[in-house]
Design brief:
Number of strands: 0
Helix content: over 70%
Order of helices and strands: HHH
Largest sheet: none
Structural class: mainly alpha
Number of helices: 3
Strand content: under 5%
């Protein structure tokens, strides 16, 4: 039904990427899930539910980091615009 080892390796890889603040690797891992979410029904076993809960939490953390970085980039762009406006207008 699902590859337990592959899922556990994916979870560990995502944890490591987040600990190392490697946002690129974390993002790429979220794009390559080790399971097909479309094939699940409400009748998943307890172990798979635990994997899904962990994946949900880790993906949520990845999203939060990406949103934070996006906000930082927006602030930097605004500072550049203000500086440009100050010097060139």
């Amino acid at each position: 039904m699902y590859d337990k080892i592959k899922i556990e390796q994916w979870i560990q890889s995502l944890k490591i990427a987040l600990i190392e603040n490697n946002v690129q690797a974390a993002f790429l891992l979220t794009q390559d899930l080790p399971f097909d979410t479309h094939t699940f029904t409400d009748n998943v076993d307890a172990e798979m539910k635990e994997y899904l809960d962990i994946a949900h939490e880790l993906i949520g953390q990845t999203i939060a980091i990406l949103q934070s970085q996006r906000d930082d980039v927006r602030k930097q762009i605004e500072k550049i615009r203000q500086t440009r406006k100050f010097f060139f207008e």
